[in-house]
């Protein structure tokens, strides 16, 4: 890769990382081609990108951006997972894969202006998704209305049961 290709790659990565809602840094040592392919497939399915990048290029890409704090953890066989759409998806997919395969280790990450350590990324991965939170809120909102409807219907149901018992008893 010549210098101009490297500069182009760095500028593309800088743009993607700055626009990302969440970035997860992981060390991947000894992953087979099929394992990396499966991980990339899972990442794409969640709307997340997974990129293996030389540390020097990654450090240049984050230099002068809010993600500059990631430079300290960009050492060793590093891979980046990031998403511009979902703030939790990269952490969820990476943590799920890391729990099954010990050759991928979560090192840290970035979320909403904060640099996270491995525990922070793991905690982020355990959060419910936006759709799950919406469904829980809707359930909480609908519960009182459902209970009121059942209570309003109950007296009529009791009268109908009494009349039915009285009618079938003769």
* Secondary structure: number of strands: 5
Structural class: alpha+beta
Largest sheet: 5 strands, antiparallel
What is the level-2 CATH architecture name of the largest domain?
A: 2-Layer Sandwich
- Gyration radius, rounded: 26 Å
What letter string, H or E per element, gives the SSE order? HEHEHEHEEHH
Task: List descriptors.
170 residues; Ribosomal_uL10-like_sf; Alpha-Beta Plaits; five-stranded antiparallel β-sheet; elongated; 17% strand; 2 domains
Description:
Keywords: Ribonucleoprotein, Ribosomal protein, RNA-binding, rRNA-binding. InterPro entries: Ribosomal_uL10, Ribosomal_uL10-like_sf, Ribosomal_uL10_bac, Ribosomal_uL10_bac_type, Ribosomal_uL10_CS_bac. GO terms for molecular function: large ribosomal subunit rRNA binding; structural constituent of ribosome. One of its GO terms (biological process) is translation. This is Large ribosomal subunit protein uL10. The structure is a single chain. This protein is of the alpha+beta class and 170 residues long. It has 2 domains: 125 residues, Alpha-Beta Plaits (2-Layer Sandwich), CATH 3.30.70; 43 residues. It has 6 helices and 5 strands; from the N terminus they run H-E-H-E-H-E-H-E-E-H-H. Strands 2-3-1-4-5 form a 5-stranded antiparallel beta sheet, with helices on both faces. Strand 4 and strand 5 form a beta hairpin. Helix 1 packs across helix 3 and helix 4 crosses helix 5. The longest helix is centred in the C-terminal third of the chain and has 39 residues. The model has no long low-confidence stretch (mean pLDDT 89).
């Amino acid at each position: 890769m010549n210098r101009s290709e490297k500069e182009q790659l760095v500028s593309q990565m800088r743009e993607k990382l700055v626009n990302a809602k969440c970035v997860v840094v992981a060390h991947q040592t000894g992953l087979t081609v099929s394992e990396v392919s499966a991980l990339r497939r899972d990442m794409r399915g969640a709307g997340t990108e997974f990129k293996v990048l030389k540390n020097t290029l990654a450090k240049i890409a984050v230099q002068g951006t809010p993600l500059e704090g990631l430079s300290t953890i960009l050492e060793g066989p590093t891979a980046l997972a990031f998403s511009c759409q979902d703030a939790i998806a990269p952490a969820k997919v990476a943590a799920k894969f890391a729990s099954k395969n010990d050759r991928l280790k979560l090192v840290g990450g970035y979320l909403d202006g904060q640099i996270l350590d491995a525990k922070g990324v793991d905690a982020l991965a355990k959060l419910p998704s936006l759709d799950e939170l919406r469904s829980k809120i809707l359930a909480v909102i609908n519960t009182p209305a459902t209970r009121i409807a059942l209570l309003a219907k109950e007296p009529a149901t009791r009268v109908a049961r009494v009349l039915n018992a009285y009618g079938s008893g003769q």
